[in-house]
Amino acid sequence: MLGLVLTAGGARGAYQAGVLKRIGEIPSLAGAASPFPIVTGASAGAINGTAIAGRARDFREATRELARLWAGLRVENVFRTDAFSLSAGALRFVRDMALGPILGSTLTQALLDAAPLREFLGRALPLDGIAGSIRDGHLYAVAILATSYHSGRSFTFVQGRPGHPVWAKSRRVVLPVDLTVDHVCASAAIPLVFPPVPIPSAAGDVYFGDGALRLVTPFSPAIRLGASHVFGIGIRSRRAADSLWQEELGVGGEGPQHGEGIPMPPMAQICGVFLNALFLDHLDADLDHLRRMNELIESVGGEARPALRPATPGATAEPMRVVSPLVVSPSEDLALVAQRFAHRMPRLVRLMLDGLGTPDAQSADLTSYLLFDSYYTRTLVDIGYRDAGERIDEIEAFLRDGTAASRAAGASVSRIANEDREERVAG
Protein backbone atom coordinates (compact mmCIF):
# COMPACT_ATOMS: atom_id res chain seq x y z
CA MET A 1 0.00 0.00 0.00
CA LEU A 2 0.98 3.61 -0.49
CA GLY A 3 1.65 5.60 2.65
CA LEU A 4 1.58 9.40 2.90
CA VAL A 5 3.96 10.73 5.57
CA LEU A 6 3.49 14.35 6.67
CA THR A 7 5.96 15.85 9.09
CA ALA A 8 5.59 18.62 11.66
CA GLY A 9 6.39 22.26 11.05
CA GLY A 10 3.90 24.86 12.28
CA ALA A 11 3.09 27.39 9.57
CA ARG A 12 5.47 25.61 7.23
CA GLY A 13 2.76 22.97 6.84
CA ALA A 14 1.38 25.17 4.05
CA TYR A 15 4.19 23.83 1.85
CA GLN A 16 2.75 20.31 2.17
CA ALA A 17 -0.63 21.59 1.00
CA GLY A 18 0.97 23.00 -2.16
CA VAL A 19 2.70 19.71 -2.98
CA LEU A 20 -0.52 17.75 -2.47
CA LYS A 21 -2.53 20.20 -4.57
CA ARG A 22 -0.21 19.64 -7.55
CA ILE A 23 -0.38 15.87 -7.10
CA GLY A 24 -4.17 16.10 -7.06
CA GLU A 25 -4.03 17.60 -10.57
CA ILE A 26 -2.50 14.44 -12.08
CA PRO A 27 -4.97 13.58 -14.87
CA SER A 28 -5.42 9.96 -13.78
CA LEU A 29 -6.59 11.16 -10.34
CA ALA A 30 -9.43 13.33 -11.67
CA GLY A 31 -12.57 12.33 -9.75
CA ALA A 32 -10.67 9.45 -8.15
CA ALA A 33 -10.17 8.45 -4.54
CA SER A 34 -6.94 9.20 -2.71
CA PRO A 35 -4.00 7.09 -3.90
CA PHE A 36 -2.82 6.93 -0.26
CA PRO A 37 -4.76 4.31 1.75
CA ILE A 38 -2.38 4.96 4.67
CA VAL A 39 -1.91 8.50 6.00
CA THR A 40 0.31 9.47 8.94
CA GLY A 41 1.15 12.87 10.33
CA ALA A 42 2.38 14.84 13.29
CA SER A 43 1.71 18.45 14.28
CA ALA A 44 0.91 20.40 11.10
CA GLY A 45 1.14 17.05 9.33
CA ALA A 46 -1.69 15.76 11.53
CA ILE A 47 -3.86 18.66 10.37
CA ASN A 48 -3.04 18.04 6.72
CA GLY A 49 -3.33 14.27 7.06
CA THR A 50 -6.79 14.28 8.60
CA ALA A 51 -7.95 16.84 6.01
CA ILE A 52 -6.92 14.46 3.22
CA ALA A 53 -8.22 11.33 4.97
CA GLY A 54 -11.63 12.84 5.68
CA ARG A 55 -12.16 13.57 1.97
CA ALA A 56 -10.36 10.50 0.62
CA ARG A 57 -13.16 9.65 -1.83
CA ASP A 58 -12.20 12.68 -3.99
CA PHE A 59 -8.48 13.34 -3.73
CA ARG A 60 -8.39 16.32 -6.08
CA GLU A 61 -11.11 18.16 -4.18
CA ALA A 62 -9.46 17.25 -0.86
CA THR A 63 -6.16 18.80 -1.91
CA ARG A 64 -7.84 21.92 -3.26
CA GLU A 65 -9.75 22.41 -0.02
CA LEU A 66 -6.56 21.95 1.99
CA ALA A 67 -4.71 24.54 -0.11
CA ARG A 68 -7.62 26.97 0.32
CA LEU A 69 -7.53 26.40 4.07
CA TRP A 70 -3.87 27.39 4.31
CA ALA A 71 -4.15 30.23 1.79
CA GLY A 72 -6.82 31.96 3.85
CA LEU A 73 -5.19 31.46 7.25
CA ARG A 74 -4.75 34.30 9.75
CA VAL A 75 -2.68 34.41 12.92
CA GLU A 76 -5.88 35.05 14.88
CA ASN A 77 -7.16 31.63 13.71
CA VAL A 78 -4.32 29.95 15.62
CA PHE A 79 -3.55 31.93 18.78
CA ARG A 80 -4.76 35.01 20.60
CA THR A 81 -2.94 38.22 19.73
CA ASP A 82 -4.79 40.80 21.84
CA ALA A 83 -2.93 42.81 24.48
CA PHE A 84 -4.80 41.23 27.39
CA SER A 85 -3.97 37.62 26.42
CA LEU A 86 -0.31 38.33 25.67
CA SER A 87 0.11 40.43 28.81
CA ALA A 88 -1.58 37.80 30.97
CA GLY A 89 0.80 35.17 29.67
CA ALA A 90 3.81 37.37 30.39
CA LEU A 91 2.58 38.20 33.90
CA ARG A 92 2.00 34.52 34.69
CA PHE A 93 5.55 33.78 33.61
CA VAL A 94 6.98 36.56 35.81
CA ARG A 95 4.83 35.40 38.74
CA ASP A 96 6.05 31.81 38.37
CA MET A 97 9.70 32.84 38.16
CA ALA A 98 9.44 35.07 41.23
CA LEU A 99 6.97 33.21 43.47
CA GLY A 100 6.75 29.67 42.10
CA PRO A 101 9.32 28.21 44.54
CA ILE A 102 7.57 29.93 47.46
CA LEU A 103 3.98 29.09 46.51
CA GLY A 104 4.85 25.59 45.35
CA SER A 105 2.83 25.90 42.14
CA THR A 106 3.05 27.55 38.73
CA LEU A 107 0.52 28.89 36.25
CA THR A 108 2.49 29.06 33.01
CA GLN A 109 2.00 26.29 30.47
CA ALA A 110 2.94 28.10 27.26
CA LEU A 111 3.81 31.46 25.78
CA LEU A 112 0.67 31.72 23.65
CA ASP A 113 -3.03 30.92 24.02
CA ALA A 114 -4.00 28.50 21.23
CA ALA A 115 -7.71 28.36 22.05
CA PRO A 116 -8.69 29.77 18.61
CA LEU A 117 -6.98 26.85 16.88
CA ARG A 118 -9.37 24.28 18.30
CA GLU A 119 -12.42 26.24 17.13
CA PHE A 120 -10.87 26.80 13.71
CA LEU A 121 -9.98 23.13 13.18
CA GLY A 122 -13.37 22.03 14.47
CA ARG A 123 -14.95 23.95 11.58
CA ALA A 124 -12.34 23.17 8.92
CA LEU A 125 -11.45 19.48 9.31
CA PRO A 126 -13.79 16.81 7.91
CA LEU A 127 -13.12 14.37 10.75
CA ASP A 128 -16.56 12.79 10.40
CA GLY A 129 -15.59 11.75 6.88
CA ILE A 130 -12.75 9.49 8.03
CA ALA A 131 -15.10 6.68 9.06
CA GLY A 132 -16.90 6.90 5.71
CA SER A 133 -13.60 6.81 3.81
CA ILE A 134 -12.63 3.66 5.69
CA ARG A 135 -16.05 2.06 5.21
CA ASP A 136 -16.02 2.78 1.46
CA GLY A 137 -12.55 1.27 1.06
CA HIS A 138 -10.78 4.52 0.12
CA LEU A 139 -8.73 4.58 3.33
CA TYR A 140 -7.05 1.80 5.29
CA ALA A 141 -5.85 3.83 8.28
CA VAL A 142 -4.94 7.34 9.36
CA ALA A 143 -2.50 7.83 12.24
CA ILE A 144 -1.56 11.00 14.07
CA LEU A 145 1.07 11.27 16.76
CA ALA A 146 1.25 13.14 20.07
CA THR A 147 3.58 13.02 23.06
CA SER A 148 2.41 12.37 26.61
CA TYR A 149 3.72 14.91 29.09
CA HIS A 150 3.17 12.34 31.86
CA SER A 151 5.11 9.31 30.62
CA GLY A 152 7.07 10.93 27.82
CA ARG A 153 5.83 8.22 25.46
CA SER A 154 4.94 8.83 21.84
CA PHE A 155 1.29 7.90 21.27
CA THR A 156 0.08 6.96 17.79
CA PHE A 157 -3.69 7.45 17.58
CA VAL A 158 -5.00 5.29 14.74
CA GLN A 159 -8.41 5.18 13.12
CA GLY A 160 -8.54 2.38 10.59
CA ARG A 161 -10.11 -0.79 9.36
CA PRO A 162 -10.78 -3.54 11.90
CA GLY A 163 -7.67 -5.63 12.43
CA HIS A 164 -5.16 -2.92 11.53
CA PRO A 165 -1.73 -3.46 13.13
CA VAL A 166 -1.24 -2.39 16.74
CA TRP A 167 2.19 -2.30 18.34
CA ALA A 168 3.90 -1.21 21.53
CA LYS A 169 7.56 -0.36 22.01
CA SER A 170 9.48 0.92 25.02
CA ARG A 171 8.68 4.57 24.28
CA ARG A 172 5.91 4.22 21.69
CA VAL A 173 2.37 2.94 21.92
CA VAL A 174 -0.57 2.68 19.52
CA LEU A 175 -4.18 3.38 20.49
CA PRO A 176 -7.09 2.62 18.14
CA VAL A 177 -9.51 5.59 18.42
CA ASP A 178 -12.10 7.60 16.59
CA LEU A 179 -10.08 10.71 15.89
CA THR A 180 -11.36 14.02 17.24
CA VAL A 181 -10.23 17.62 17.05
CA ASP A 182 -8.60 17.15 20.47
CA HIS A 183 -6.25 14.51 19.05
CA VAL A 184 -5.28 16.86 16.23
CA CYS A 185 -4.78 19.83 18.56
CA ALA A 186 -2.67 17.69 20.89
CA SER A 187 -0.45 16.64 18.00
CA ALA A 188 -0.05 20.28 16.94
CA ALA A 189 0.69 21.72 20.42
CA ILE A 190 4.21 23.06 19.86
CA PRO A 191 6.03 22.70 23.20
CA LEU A 192 6.50 25.91 25.22
CA VAL A 193 4.64 27.87 22.54
CA PHE A 194 1.18 26.25 22.80
CA PRO A 195 -0.29 24.71 25.98
CA PRO A 196 -0.73 20.94 26.50
CA VAL A 197 -4.04 19.44 25.35
CA PRO A 198 -5.99 17.01 27.55
CA ILE A 199 -7.18 13.71 26.07
CA PRO A 200 -9.69 11.67 28.11
CA SER A 201 -8.59 8.21 29.24
CA ALA A 202 -9.67 5.55 31.74
CA ALA A 203 -7.38 7.24 34.29
CA GLY A 204 -8.80 10.70 33.58
CA ASP A 205 -7.37 13.44 31.39
CA VAL A 206 -3.85 12.90 30.07
CA TYR A 207 -2.00 15.93 28.72
CA PHE A 208 -0.28 15.75 25.35
CA GLY A 209 2.00 17.93 23.28
CA ASP A 210 3.50 18.02 19.81
CA GLY A 211 3.83 14.67 18.07
CA ALA A 212 7.27 15.56 16.75
CA LEU A 213 8.87 15.49 20.20
CA ARG A 214 9.69 11.77 19.99
CA LEU A 215 9.10 11.10 16.31
CA VAL A 216 12.68 10.30 15.32
CA THR A 217 11.55 7.83 12.62
CA PRO A 218 8.74 9.54 10.67
CA PHE A 219 8.33 6.69 8.18
CA SER A 220 7.86 4.07 10.89
CA PRO A 221 4.09 4.42 11.58
CA ALA A 222 3.21 4.13 7.89
CA ILE A 223 5.50 1.14 7.42
CA ARG A 224 4.13 -0.63 10.49
CA LEU A 225 0.61 -0.07 9.19
CA GLY A 226 1.59 -1.95 6.03
CA ALA A 227 2.91 0.59 3.53
CA SER A 228 5.22 -0.81 0.85
CA HIS A 229 5.77 2.64 -0.67
CA VAL A 230 6.08 5.80 1.44
CA PHE A 231 5.77 9.32 0.09
CA GLY A 232 7.08 11.97 2.46
CA ILE A 233 6.85 15.75 2.25
CA GLY A 234 9.61 17.58 4.10
CA ILE A 235 9.66 21.24 5.05
CA ARG A 236 13.40 21.96 5.03
CA SER A 237 15.53 22.90 2.07
CA ARG A 238 18.52 20.57 1.89
CA ARG A 239 20.38 23.15 -0.16
CA ALA A 240 19.86 25.81 2.53
CA ALA A 241 20.96 23.43 5.28
CA ASP A 242 24.13 22.55 3.34
CA SER A 243 25.01 26.22 2.82
CA LEU A 244 24.81 26.89 6.57
CA TRP A 245 27.22 24.15 7.58
CA GLN A 246 29.57 25.06 4.72
CA GLU A 247 29.60 28.59 6.13
CA GLU A 248 30.57 27.18 9.53
CA LEU A 249 33.47 25.33 7.93
CA GLY A 250 34.52 28.42 5.99
CA VAL A 251 34.00 26.88 2.56
CA GLY A 252 32.05 28.09 -0.46
CA GLY A 253 33.00 31.76 -0.20
CA GLU A 254 29.86 32.70 1.73
CA GLY A 255 29.33 34.21 5.16
CA PRO A 256 31.86 35.96 7.41
CA GLN A 257 35.34 36.65 6.17
CA HIS A 258 38.24 34.68 7.58
CA GLY A 259 38.87 35.52 11.21
CA GLU A 260 35.59 37.35 11.76
CA GLY A 261 33.75 34.36 13.21
CA ILE A 262 30.00 33.81 13.38
CA PRO A 263 28.07 36.13 15.75
CA MET A 264 26.77 34.81 19.06
CA PRO A 265 23.19 33.58 18.52
CA PRO A 266 20.35 35.48 20.23
CA MET A 267 17.55 33.63 22.04
CA ALA A 268 15.31 33.75 18.95
CA GLN A 269 17.93 31.84 16.96
CA ILE A 270 18.36 29.28 19.74
CA CYS A 271 14.58 28.74 19.83
CA GLY A 272 14.59 28.33 16.05
CA VAL A 273 17.28 25.66 16.21
CA PHE A 274 15.31 23.94 18.99
CA LEU A 275 12.25 23.76 16.74
CA ASN A 276 14.41 22.59 13.85
CA ALA A 277 15.59 19.69 16.00
CA LEU A 278 11.95 18.73 16.56
CA PHE A 279 10.55 19.30 13.10
CA LEU A 280 13.19 19.20 10.40
CA ASP A 281 16.08 16.91 11.09
CA HIS A 282 14.38 13.51 11.41
CA LEU A 283 12.89 12.97 7.94
CA ASP A 284 16.23 13.13 6.10
CA ALA A 285 17.89 10.93 8.73
CA ASP A 286 15.07 8.37 8.55
CA LEU A 287 15.24 8.39 4.76
CA ASP A 288 18.96 7.56 4.92
CA HIS A 289 18.21 4.81 7.45
CA LEU A 290 15.43 3.36 5.30
CA ARG A 291 17.65 3.24 2.22
CA ARG A 292 20.36 1.53 4.23
CA MET A 293 17.88 -1.05 5.53
CA ASN A 294 16.69 -1.70 1.98
CA GLU A 295 20.28 -2.36 0.91
CA LEU A 296 20.73 -4.74 3.82
CA ILE A 297 17.55 -6.69 3.05
CA GLU A 298 18.36 -6.91 -0.65
CA SER A 299 21.89 -8.10 0.15
CA VAL A 300 20.48 -11.15 1.91
CA GLY A 301 17.96 -11.98 -0.79
CA GLY A 302 15.02 -9.72 0.09
CA GLU A 303 12.55 -8.56 -2.50
CA ALA A 304 10.96 -5.20 -3.13
CA ARG A 305 7.53 -6.27 -1.93
CA PRO A 306 5.80 -6.55 1.44
CA ALA A 307 5.99 -9.77 3.44
CA LEU A 308 2.71 -11.55 2.73
CA ARG A 309 2.35 -13.82 5.72
CA PRO A 310 1.86 -12.11 9.07
CA ALA A 311 4.25 -12.70 11.92
CA THR A 312 3.43 -15.50 14.34
CA PRO A 313 1.00 -14.20 17.00
CA GLY A 314 2.94 -13.13 20.05
CA ALA A 315 6.27 -13.13 18.24
CA THR A 316 8.58 -10.20 18.98
CA ALA A 317 10.21 -10.12 15.54
CA GLU A 318 8.48 -8.38 12.67
CA PRO A 319 8.72 -9.37 9.00
CA MET A 320 11.31 -7.27 7.20
CA ARG A 321 10.69 -6.02 3.70
CA VAL A 322 12.00 -3.52 1.20
CA VAL A 323 10.05 -0.24 1.37
CA SER A 324 10.29 2.22 -1.52
CA PRO A 325 10.57 5.89 -0.43
CA LEU A 326 10.15 9.20 -2.22
CA VAL A 327 10.52 12.59 -0.54
CA VAL A 328 9.75 16.09 -1.82
CA SER A 329 11.38 19.00 0.07
CA PRO A 330 11.42 22.78 -0.45
CA SER A 331 13.65 24.21 -3.14
CA GLU A 332 13.84 27.48 -1.18
CA ASP A 333 14.86 28.32 2.37
CA LEU A 334 11.52 28.86 4.12
CA ALA A 335 13.24 30.89 6.86
CA LEU A 336 14.28 33.45 4.26
CA VAL A 337 10.77 33.45 2.82
CA ALA A 338 9.38 34.13 6.30
CA GLN A 339 11.70 37.11 6.69
CA ARG A 340 10.02 38.79 3.71
CA PHE A 341 6.68 38.62 5.51
CA ALA A 342 7.78 39.09 9.12
CA HIS A 343 6.15 42.53 9.18
CA ARG A 344 2.80 40.74 8.74
CA MET A 345 3.01 39.31 12.26
CA PRO A 346 0.65 41.15 14.67
CA ARG A 347 2.55 44.03 16.24
CA LEU A 348 2.41 42.83 19.84
CA VAL A 349 3.58 39.35 18.88
CA ARG A 350 6.35 40.88 16.78
CA LEU A 351 7.48 42.96 19.75
CA MET A 352 7.55 39.85 21.92
CA LEU A 353 9.65 37.98 19.37
CA ASP A 354 11.94 40.99 18.88
CA GLY A 355 12.62 40.82 22.61
CA LEU A 356 14.33 37.48 21.94
CA GLY A 357 16.83 39.14 19.62
CA THR A 358 17.33 39.30 15.87
CA PRO A 359 18.84 36.15 14.34
CA ASP A 360 20.72 36.11 11.08
CA ALA A 361 18.34 35.76 8.15
CA GLN A 362 19.06 32.14 7.23
CA SER A 363 18.73 31.00 10.84
CA ALA A 364 15.49 32.91 11.50
CA ASP A 365 13.40 29.77 11.76
CA LEU A 366 11.24 30.78 14.74
CA THR A 367 9.22 33.24 12.67
CA SER A 368 8.79 30.69 9.89
CA TYR A 369 6.96 28.35 12.30
CA LEU A 370 4.66 30.96 13.87
CA LEU A 371 3.78 33.20 10.92
CA PHE A 372 0.26 31.88 10.32
CA ASP A 373 -0.48 34.67 7.83
CA SER A 374 -2.13 34.21 4.45
CA TYR A 375 0.55 36.17 2.54
CA TYR A 376 3.23 33.82 3.86
CA THR A 377 1.21 30.61 3.69
CA ARG A 378 0.01 31.32 0.15
CA THR A 379 3.64 31.75 -0.87
CA LEU A 380 4.52 28.40 0.68
CA VAL A 381 1.58 26.74 -1.08
CA ASP A 382 2.89 28.16 -4.37
CA ILE A 383 6.43 26.92 -3.67
CA GLY A 384 5.16 23.44 -2.83
CA TYR A 385 2.99 23.40 -5.95
CA ARG A 386 5.95 24.41 -8.11
CA ASP A 387 8.36 21.92 -6.52
CA ALA A 388 5.92 19.05 -7.02
CA GLY A 389 5.31 20.18 -10.59
CA GLU A 390 9.01 19.96 -11.39
CA ARG A 391 9.02 16.32 -10.25
CA ILE A 392 5.50 15.37 -11.28
CA ASP A 393 6.56 12.63 -13.72
CA GLU A 394 8.66 10.99 -10.98
CA ILE A 395 5.81 11.31 -8.48
CA GLU A 396 3.24 9.90 -10.91
CA ALA A 397 5.46 6.90 -11.66
CA PHE A 398 5.95 6.32 -7.93
CA LEU A 399 2.20 6.39 -7.28
CA ARG A 400 1.61 4.02 -10.19
CA ASP A 401 4.21 1.56 -8.89
CA GLY A 402 2.81 1.74 -5.37
CA THR A 403 -0.74 1.13 -6.54
CA ALA A 404 0.36 -1.84 -8.66
CA ALA A 405 2.27 -3.30 -5.69
CA SER A 406 -0.82 -2.92 -3.49
CA ARG A 407 -2.96 -4.81 -5.99
CA ALA A 408 -0.39 -7.57 -6.34
CA ALA A 409 -0.04 -7.90 -2.58
CA GLY A 410 -3.81 -7.97 -2.15
CA ALA A 411 -4.13 -10.75 -4.71
CA SER A 412 -1.37 -12.74 -3.02
CA VAL A 413 -2.91 -12.30 0.42
CA SER A 414 -6.26 -13.52 -0.93
CA ARG A 415 -4.56 -16.55 -2.47
CA ILE A 416 -2.78 -17.38 0.79
CA ALA A 417 -6.01 -16.98 2.74
CA ASN A 418 -7.78 -19.35 0.35
CA GLU A 419 -4.95 -21.88 0.69
CA ASP A 420 -5.18 -21.67 4.49
CA ARG A 421 -8.93 -22.25 4.39
CA GLU A 422 -8.48 -25.24 2.09
CA GLU A 423 -5.85 -26.69 4.42
CA ARG A 424 -8.17 -26.31 7.42
CA VAL A 425 -11.02 -27.98 5.53
CA ALA A 426 -8.78 -30.82 4.39
CA GLY A 427 -7.49 -31.24 7.95
Q: What is the strand and helix layout of this fold?
A:
Blueprint: E1 2-6, H1 13-24, E2 38-42, H2 44-54, H3 59-71, H4 83-103, H5 115-124, H6 128-135, E3 141-148, E4 154-160, E5 172-176, H7 181-187, E6 197-201, E7 204-209, H8 220-224, E8 229-233, H9 238-249, H10 267-279, H11 281-299, E9 324-328, H12 334-340, H13 347-354, H14 365-370, H15 374-390, H16 392-426
Parallel strand pairs: 1-2, 1-8, 2-3, 4-5, 8-9
Antiparallel strand pairs: 3-4, 3-7, 6-7
Helix pairs in contact: 1-3, 1-15, 2-3, 5-7
Characterise the protein shown here.
It contains 16 helices and 9 strands. 48% of the residues lie in helices and 12% in strands. The chain is of the alpha/beta class. Strands 1, 2, 3, 4, 5, 6, 7, 8 and 9 form a 9-stranded mixed beta sheet that branches.
What gap, in angstroms, lies between the N and C termini?
Answer: 33 Å
**Element order: H for helix, E for strand:** EHEHHHHHEEEHEEHEHHHEHHHHH
| Main sheet summary | 9 strands, mixed
DSSP helical segment count = 16
What is the strand content? Answer: 5-15%
- pLDDT average, as an integer? 82
Subunit arrangement of the protein: single chain
**How many DSSP-defined strands?**
9
Shape: globular
Provide the structure class.
alpha/beta
Low-confidence stretches: 304-316, 411-417
The proportion of residues forming helix, as a percent range, comes to: 40-55%
Rg from alpha-carbon coordinates: 23 Å
